[in-house]
Amino acid sequence: MEATVLSVGKSVVNGAVSYAQSAVAEEVALQLGVQRDQAFIRDELEMMQSFLMVAHDDRDDNKVVKTWVKQVRDLGYDVEDCLQDFAVHLEKPSYWWHILRTLLDRRHVAVQMKDLRAKVEDVSQRNLRYHLIKGPAAGSKSVATAAEQYAAGSKASATMYGVDEARRAMKPRVDLAQLISKEQGKDLRVIAVWGTCGVLGQVSVIRKVYDDSDKFDCRAWVKLTHPFDPIMFMQSIMRQFYGYSSISESAAEGQSCPECASATGAEVLKKMLMMKQKDLVDKFTEYVNKKSYLIVLNNLCSIEDWDWIRTYFPASSNGNRIIVATQQVEVASLCVGRKYRVSELKQLSTDQTLYVFYHKSPQGGSDPMEPESSSNTTAIVTTNRTNSLVPTSEIPAGDQAKDATTGQNAVMRSLSRILSRTALLKESEVVGRVTEKIDILQLIVDPVNKEVQVISVWGMGGIGKTALVKDICESQELSDTFKKRACVTIMRPFNQVQFLRSLIMQLVVTETSEENGTVCSLGKVRKTLPWSVEKLEAELGSLLEEKRWLIVLDDLSSTTELDIIMKSLPCTENASRIIVTTREENIANHCSKKVENVYKLKGLTKKNALVVFTKKVFKENECLHLQYPELVEQAEQILKKCSGLPLAIVAIGGFLANQPKTVMEWRKLNENLSSELEMNTELDTIRTVLLKSYDGLPYHLKACFLYLAIFPEGYKISLTRLVRRWIAEGYSRPVRGKSSSEIAESYFMDLISRSMILPSRSSSHSRKVVDSCQLHDVIREIGISKSMEENLVFRLEEGCTSNSQGTIRHLSVSNNWKGDESEFESTIDLSRVRSITIFGKWRSFFISDKMRLLRVLDLESTSGLVDHHLEHIGKLFHLRYLSLRGCHGIYHLPGSLGNLRQLQTLDITGTNIIKLPKNIIKLRKLQHVHARGVGNNDEPVYQEYPNEVPKLTRNKLCILTCSSVGFCVACCAPHLLKGCMGIDGDTNRRDVCTACCCSFLPMLATRRCSRGVEMPRGIHRFKALQTLGVVNVSRRKATLRELASLTGLRKLGVTGVDKSNGGELCSALANLSSLETLLVQSEGKPGLSGCLDGLSSPLENLVSLKLYGNLVELPAWINGGLKNLAKLKLRSSRIEKHDAAIQILGSLPNLAILRLRKESFEGKEVHLHFQQGAFQTLMVLELSSPGNLKSVRFDKGAAPKLELLQYYDQPKEEVVSEENGDQFEEAPGVSFSGLAFLGSLKEVLLEGGNYKGDFVQNLRSQLELNLKRPVLKMD
């Protein structure tokens, strides 16, 4: 089964099941009187969910199942949409005039529920017709059985158990009747029947042979139940034994079959009813010991059941036969015994074949059960119950010289499997990897560590891990260091025996004969390799004893595999090494216990990428800029898409090498990379390697990854934005005490650790490691292709064709799409769209009444959006995420916003909204409100009127009157003020009037630039609110009292704090025990001075604190009270006691980031002294014009973990800068000392103005004395 189909299908059905099981759905069903329908649908979906879980894990490749999964996926969408639509309708207010409407709605809902139940029944019946699962009545075990059936049909399983050899064999086929009737000794024999399509055709084939077998004293056909019941099992067998014996006796006396069958049935029933359990067991034992019997065990699904059953049938010499019909190839192989044959029994159709497993004949003897041409028809397989994974590819056949040569060549190919994956990277092995090679070599040859060290090299697929490691292992530097070297690619599924045999063969630098599985040295047989793990481990230990060895484990994908391998390797103290290559960071960290042994391999630099590319295209080191200047632009675009990925660079370069060297050809590749990757066989390697990473994702991460196809090429995707959207879409739900946000963030980090997405702006020094990401362009193309296959994401862009594949769930409108309304509505079915994301210019038809199921409306940074475009937004009842971030033309939210009762996230940051509508208090599910920021300045903006304004007209009344008249005139002609007000879009009079009344007039009246938003009365009802900011508390004093009721708040930002409301702010904060992030801002003086002193107890859970405004001194509760504080930012604080403040901050036990911004300290001269033992956890220190800074001194032992030091000095206007070579002249007036003592320092960053030459030289001199050799960067 293609992983994408199952993953998306399972993700969708999970969402539907979660909602169908919820209390909300049950309440809806109760109110509507459709409880039975709702319960039926819920149960059916749970069955489908269980089936999809197992089918996804087993990677079934059945086309019928694939089609059915797609239907289940669409059904899951319909169920969830329908149930939530019902809930939304019930949440509407029930006024008396709505009674009639409510009755009509309920009737309509009942009809819809019946239709939905009919759809579910139809899908269930369909899978019964095609033998996919056994229907809802069979229970969850039938689903597991079906999933095992699919796993048995997979190609991997077929290869393991010799089925592939039987499939390739020439006819004739084995006759099941001959296997049963022909003499092959008198011992009990077991024959197993398995088919590529599960039970299809099994029963009819076995039944025919069963009915024709009359040589046995008794026979029975038993359909096994799960869990296995021994009493029922014996009763079923004895009932049939009695019946068969009676019929035989009656037939011998001359009675007709119908008569004797009728009489026998009643007699047997009577006998069974009178028999006690003890007598039943005794009779059963008597029959199986003294009589010959034929028993068919139908639907055996586990080897544990077989281990139990076979104890009831002792070894006897009566010629007994047991036929096992199973849906699992592994069970079929293990039931027969250690040595068995596999033959084709019957081909039902092109892709549906039955196979039979039976006992192998004695060595050297003939097998009477085998057809004459048995050498061509069967595969002989030897297995061990302790390890059922049989590497049949290593079982030789033939002893001719030609076969021996072929066998040697095959082993050579086996020993160099690693080359097959890196052949395409041959050209890029040396270029650009000198530094990486030196780094890894140093880790390998490090003489200090005598114990076995595991060195992990990780990175995304195609980055060149295998090529680099192989080049290092074969290098001259290691030839004399390690006496034993081997490189093994970890195959999946992992087979320990096969791995150990391959490793041993490489360690002795030998060849193996395919004829008998022996190890040879210089063409001479040395010894035969055993098949048991214990003997192989002993052999491996003797090879590595007292020798220094180097083993490469390539492409490790599971920590379990490494744990098994490590147990097989000897523990030595001679500086032996293991190198692991993997795509996942978590696996790398698990393998290498020491952080320094984990090495992340990154992409090639632009320079090296260009060298590799030109060498591949032109077969030599051409200078592209000189020889082909017209191709430079296209080459740069190609390399940008490759993003330093050697695999992609070499593959695309190789393809272009055989194409005309013209701009048109290269542009064609650039514009159609997605289709080329899918259709061009020369680029198959890229797709194959990268799809391996995708296929390795669990189902929930596949859905999350495909969702990223929404975003444009090269787009930086904010973590917060993505997490909020995933939650709104239902991709993340609370699990075992973890919130949906924590789960979504773990998904995000997991995708990064698996190299599926790239961190675009790393904050490695904070608690949140990454705050945004980007998609590698080549991986993005694959994601787009997969998401379109699943009808998950449709990108509306220039040149796109009308969607005819089915219902689209997520729509992304690119900035280059120029279509009209008719094209928009004809391209996709808007009624099923769940999310719309706009990149570029707004069109009035992007919001439609047809979008009744829309959950996400993301308009971030959309241009041309104005107030009247949001008039009908209240009709989107299912909306959970609304983002207007960066839409500068929005001044007011419509009152219909109150209809969005499902809304969870409202983001209006970067708009001109200064007051939220009153109806917002109806949104009880609101969790996150992001509003206006606090700006870059903490001073009042309009302190005085300009001098040009006459004094007579400077009073507030006059200003307001004149402004109102001007705005009224502008409302009559909106285009007059459109430009000066910064409104971009289809503006009408109402938009201009709204902008004037809601923004410009209030600012003129208060003579202040508005910060934050004003909240309406009643915000205490937002019990689900977790994020709120930034709120202006100066306009309504009751706001702070209401904030005290929001005990679930984790992030809060307030502005407008002063002496008048400082006490109420402290009282409110005292109630917010869950608060993790706090921002407090005041304007001018006295600012925050004394406003925060009233906090009775510190905020113990606070992680991030930002204080903007005049403090004079730090609040007392900061000293020793903020044990979890990791991030602190001060701005305009004007702290006077510098040393005391630094001492307090230095004692905070978990402070990782300290940012001292503009005017943090007050005084003629500011000297910052970081004393020994202070700032033990500090990792980032920012000093951005913190005052009249003169010196910064670090004592030895201060800030031992500091990694980044940022300094910004604002240039003074009166100083003229002069350029002198590569340095600049200006006097910053500050000196740094003690930088050599900072043992973890990695980087010093100078920002802002130009810096004096001797100042820069002094910094460099200190950094050169630092053992870490930090870099100095100037921005």
UniProtKB/TrEMBL annotation:
Record keyword Coiled coil present: yes
Keyword Repeat carried by entry: yes
Keywords: Coiled coil, Leucine-rich repeat, Nucleotide-binding, Plant defense, Repeat
Ranges for domain NB-ARC: 185-359, 449-622
Residue stretches making up the Disease resistance N-terminal domain: 12-94
GO BP terms: defense response to bacterium; innate immune response-activating signaling pathway; plant-type hypersensitive response
Pfam families: LRR_14, NB-ARC, Rx_N, WHD_DRP
GO molecular function: ADP binding
Residue ranges of domain Disease resistance protein winged helix in the record: 710-781
Coiled-coil intervals, chain numbering: none
Domain Disease resistance R13L4/SHOC-2-like LRR stretches: 833-932, 1008-1246
Similarity annotation: Belongs to the disease resistance NB-LRR family.
Descriptive protein name: Disease resistance protein RPM1
The species this protein was found in: Aegilops tauschii subsp. strangulata
